UniProtKB/TrEMBL annotation:
Its EC number is 2.7.13.3. GO terms for molecular function: kinase activity. It comes from Camelimonas fluminis. The keyword Kinase applies. It catalyses: ATP + protein L-histidine = ADP + protein N-phospho-L-histidine. This is histidine kinase.
């Protein structure tokens, strides 16, 4: 303690004034921190809601295009076909609760998911006749918090129909986050011209965020806000703890000598440095163990195949069957190269990955896994059923990695059915559309417990005594590296895993 600082710290009045300044500074810092947290939460939730609403709005364009194509091709002759597609859309997308096909000829009969009133029908006709080919957005004439999308069909001067989708604005934004039901939070949605669709109350003036949906046809205005209340800025427990901590710290600081403070600081720094060293060492050991376990898990399949082929080759040598031995050796070499490829992938596991330049056919992947798992399914008494399209299903992914994903999922499904009292059944379904391929693997086993669902894709999560718990975690990483998604489908008996992979255009043919 210096001579200049000693009189100041030894004066009770000056100690009190300094303590008050520190408490005021602590309260100001708490205000800034809490306000920043509130603003950050609003911006983060607003961005997530904006992205979700924009994605949902883009889906409406695809629905209108599909319905328009059906209407132009066969609306007069196949009303049932149009109604079936419309019913499917309203069932899988509850926010779309009305589909109408209105003939531009007033004498024509409307086709829709429900009866349409004359006012709405005339509104659709008028909009379809005058617009320039773009989708028209209007508030629903009879339903609150709804808007309608109107498009002429065919989308040309020779249009015969006005196609309408009725969209529930509340459901367009629904299910995003519990954050939007909190007190003081406001959520408004308006048409591009400012007409409100969803406005439960005026947006708070304290903090407001306004964004336009990223949809060319539905540039709806999303406005969010939150009112900052003193109870949120200065929570009782946090404020009391902060002020008490500042006061106690200040009292302890002025009662200690500088030399002792420097000594304690040096000791604390040494302790933290030692702790950091131990934690860094533990992290390296854990990472090494995870990589080793993953490598052993990945190599089990090709090494098992090599062992089986070697045993078969030995029996052929004993019998003198040299003609078939060459085939067995070829398969052994193939599996050895497969293991070498896996080792190379683990060596490059942490390096930045690029999307493959060629496509693989998921049908070939499933066929290869089917051949590998047929003996296991037979031993477990499990029936394998496949629903595979006739045309190639090409995705931009590595064939070996996709085989590993399908192998893990199918093997888990077969082993799950072995514990069931009824006859085991595993169904593999592969579908595709213009943008993505969807693979579903379902079984009639006991399903996945609620406790396990929360950490299903976490490494080392397993229910088998001899399992490594890395199969689903590695499968998730491989699928995500290919730009796809893997998930457990909710509902139904047993367990159903869904793999969604984007289809790529402009690729070379399927990899061998």
């Amino acid at each position: 303690m210096t001579r200049a600082s000693r009189p100041f710290l030894e004066s009770p009045l000056r100690q009190f004034l300094l303590g008050c300044c520190l408490l005021v500074a602590a309260a100001g810092a708490l205000f800034v921190f809490q306000r920043h947290a509130i603003v950050a939460a609003l911006e983060q939730e607003s961005v997530a809601l904006h992205r979700l609403a924009s994605q949902r709005a883009d889906q409406h364009d695809a629905h209108l295009t599909a319905l328009s194509a059906i209407a132009a091709a066969a609306a007069d002759d196949r009303r049932d076909l149009f109604l079936d597609v419309a019913a499917t859309i309203t069932r899988f997308y509850p926010r779309i609760d009305e589909v109408q096909l209105i003939p531009l000829d007033p004498g024509g009969e409307p086709i829709g998911t429900e009866p349409v009133d004359p006012q709405t029908a005339e509104l659709v006709r008028a909009a379809a006749k005058v617009h320039d080919g773009k989708i028209v957005l209007l508030p629903h004439p009879t339903r609150a918090h709804h808007y309608i999308m109107i498009k002429r069909s065919p989308n040309s001067a020779a249009a015969r129909y006005g196609l309408m989708l009725g969209v529930d604005a509340a459901k367009l934004l629904g299910g995003a986050s519990p954050y939007w039901s909190r007190p003081g939070v406001s959520l408004n949605l308006s048409l591009p011209d400012g007409q409100p669709l969803l406005a439960p109350g005026p947006a708070p003036k304290t903090i407001r965020v306004s964004r336009t949906l990223d949809s060319a046809s539905q540039p709806l205005i999303l406005e969010t806000g939150v009112a900052i209340r003193m109870a949120e800025i200065f929570p009782l427990a946090l404020t009391g703890f902060t002020l008490a901590a500042v006061g106690l710290g200040y009292t302890a600081a002025i009662s200690a000598l500088r030399q002792r403070a420097r000594t304690r600081a040096a000791m604390e720094q040494a302790r933290i440095s030692a702790l950091d060293s131990r934690l860094a060492h533990a992290s390296r050991v854990n990472a090494l163990g995870e990589m080793a376990s993953g490598l052993a898990h990945e190599l089990t399949q090709p090494l098992t195949a090599i062992l089986a082929q070697a045993q078969a080759g030995r029996r052929m040598v004993d019998r003198g069957d040299m003609a078939r031995l060459a085939t067995v050796l070829d398969d052994t070499v193939k599996q050895a190269r497969r293991a070498a490829t896996m080792l190379e992938r683990f060596r490059n596991w942490s390096r930045p990955q690029q999307m493959p330049g060629s496509a693989c056919d998921l049908r070939d992947v499933i066929e290869n896994v089917h051949a590998l798992l047929t003996p296991l399914a037979a031993s477990c008494g499990t029936r394998l059923t496949f629903h595979i399209p006739d045309n190639a299903v090409l995705v931009a992914a590595d064939a070996i990695e996709m085989e590993q994903v399908v192998f893990n999922l199918m093997r888990n499904a077969v082993e799950a059915t072995s514990a069931s009292d009824s006859a085991g059944q595993v169904t593999v379904t592969l579908q595709q559309d213009a943008r993505q391929a969807v693979l579903e693997i379902a079984d009639n086993g006991p399903g996945v417990s609620e406790e396990l669902r929360r950490r299903l894709f976490t490494p080392f999560t397993t229910t088998r005594a001899n399992g490594t718990g890395l199969g689903l975690a590695l499968s998730q990483r491989l699928v995500e590296r290919a730009g796809g998604d893997i998930s457990l489908v909710e509902g139904g008996s047993g367990a159903t895993f869904r793999v969604v992979l984007p289809r790529r255009q402009g690729l070379a043919g399927a990899t061998p």
